[in-house]
Design goal:
By secondary structure, the protein is α/β, with parallel strands linked by helices. It contains seven helices and six strands.
Length: 155
């Protein structure tokens, strides 16, 4: 499988909710399904509404499908917090939402982990996976050694 080489892009427009809603309708009508359009309220800054635009095949779900095939991955686990993660959840075997995720994401999740402001994803990984990871604090997981005998294995 090859990644598409033409027309891959991503853009975000941030604005007031009603303006973003109208813009989403206008862009959808003008592009006839050639784009992926996801309008969502920012979970961290609820006064902001985001419109994410990308090529129809340049989505998290397509990336998961491509990586699954390219790397011969048997199991995909996803973490998310907002509407742009829902297609990725559908392409994954397990889907975890952070506790402060959008209601639609919470409803679609296999399970809910701690909030992002509580290092929920890192703590879930530490509790669920490698014994080496279980004793590390979240900051060590994010900033710890990348090479050498103390490196955290990624596979």
């Amino acid at each position: 499988a090859l990644l598409p080489r033409d027309g891959v892009f991503y853009a975000t427009i941030i604005g007031e909710a009603s303006a973003i809603a109208a813009l989403t309708i206008d862009i959808a009508a003008a592009t006839d399904g050639r784009l992926s359009l996801i309008a969502q309220i920012d979970t961290h800054h609820p006064q902001d509404t985001y419109l994410e635009l990308s090529a129809a095949r340049a989505t998290k779900a397509h990336a998961v499908a491509w990586l699954r095939e390219y790397l011969s991955i048997d199991r995909v686990i996803a973490y998310g917090d907002n509407l742009n993660d829902l297609p990725m959840f559908g392409a994954s075997d397990e889907a975890y939402a952070v506790a402060n995720a959008a209601p639609e994401v919470l409803a679609a999740a296999t399970e809910v982990v701690g909030a992002n402001v509580e290092d929920g994803v890192v703590r879930h990984l530490a509790a669920s996976w490698s014994p080496d990871v279980k004793t590390a604090r979240p900051a060590e997981l994010l900033n710890g050694p990348q090479n050498g005998p103390d490196a955290i294995p990624l596979r």
